[in-house]
């Protein structure tokens, strides 16, 4: 199985901050890396697919980059509705599809 | 816009079988997946169904898992046998979009909490 790690596991930030979350795969996954946002009690929501493609309806303050084993999700200017947990997910090698452990973004 | 709705018992006895349905509306049944999330923890992929009947399962759950499809009813089902407390989780059904260089989980159901307890 491909193992996914994320750093940090949590971070505190203020509205307007630039936030960067890192995801690392245990082996190369090409560009098969997706990012999801999850708020408490809600289903995950797709933000970014194929490393850097913005899902329809997602604000452009969200962006993704990377390749191979190292990937990044950036929120250029954090908004109140962005406080949530973020998960990366690889789909290069299946089964199984694997998710990172999540990064919780909360209010500083 | 595809809509998904999970249903099934909220309580299952240890060693019993967890059975959930996912009612799909608003789109054809192409590629579908089940994902679960234990309380306070991260997301775990269970398995998927595609091409009308092919399936993949997580190796850690494969021996206990079955995903099936009733095309006539647009109903996706999950069956997990010999459950333990470790199977307590919110279970989500979701639609998969895939292509040459992408594969992602798109529309999700609201999720249903299943508790394994005597």
What's the quick description here?
By secondary structure, chain A is mainly beta.
Q: What is the tally of helical segments of chain A?
A: 0
Number of distinct helices of chain B: 0
Strand count of chain B: 11
**SS content category of chain A:** mainly beta
Description:
The complex is a heterodimer of chains A (108) and B (118). Chain A is mainly β. Chain A contains no helices and eleven strands. Chain A has strands spanning 4-7, 10-13, 19-25, 33-38, 45-49, 53-54, 62-67, 70-75, 84-90, 98-99, 103-107. In chain A, a hairpin with a 2-residue loop joins strand 7 and strand 8 (70-75). Chain A starts with a strand and ends with a strand. In chain A, 36% of the residues are buried. The model of chain A has no long low-confidence stretch (mean pLDDT 97). Chain B is mainly beta. Helices cover 0% and strands 58% of the residues of chain B. Chain B contains no helices and eleven strands. Chain B has strands at residues 3-7, 11-12, 18-25, 31-37, 44-50, 54-57, 65-70, 75-80, 89-99, 102-108, 112-116. Chain B is globular. Chain B starts with a strand and ends with a strand. The model of chain B has no long low-confidence stretch (mean pLDDT 94). The chains are: A mainly beta (108), B mainly beta (118). The interface between A and B is medium-sized, with 27 and 28 residues.
Q: Which features would summarize this protein structure in a list?
A:
heterodimer; A: 108 residues; mainly beta; seven-stranded mixed beta sheet; B: 118 residues; four-stranded antiparallel beta sheet
């Amino acid at each position: 199985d491909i193992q996914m790690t994320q750093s940090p596991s949590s971070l505190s930030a203020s509205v307007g901050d630039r936030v960067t979350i890192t995801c690392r795969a245990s082996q190369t996954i090409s560009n098969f890396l997706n990012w999801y946002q999850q708020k408490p009690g809600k289903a995950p929501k797709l933000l970014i697919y194929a490393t850097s493609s913005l899902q329809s309806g997602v604000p452009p303050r969200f962006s993704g980059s990377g390749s191979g084993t190292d990937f990044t999700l950036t929120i250029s200017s954090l908004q109140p509705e962005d406080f949530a947990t973020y998960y990366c997910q690889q789909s290069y090698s299946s089964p199984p599809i694997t998710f990172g452990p999540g990064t919780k973004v909360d209010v500083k | 816009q595809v809509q998904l709705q999970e249903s099934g018992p909220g309580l299952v006895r240890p060693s019993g079988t967890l059975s959930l349905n996912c009612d799909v509306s608003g789109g054809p049944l192409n590629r579908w997946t089940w994902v679960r999330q234990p309380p306070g923890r991260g997301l775990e992929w269970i398995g998927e169904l595609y091409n009308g009947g092919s399936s993949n399962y997580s190796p850690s759950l494969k021996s206990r898992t079955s995903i099936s499809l009733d095309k006539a009813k647009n109903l996706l089902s999950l069956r997990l046998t010999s459950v333990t407390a470790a199977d307590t989780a919110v279970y989500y059904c979701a639609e998969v979009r895939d292509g040459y260089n992408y594969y992602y989980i798109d529309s999700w159901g609201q999720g249903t909490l299943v508790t394994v307890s005597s």
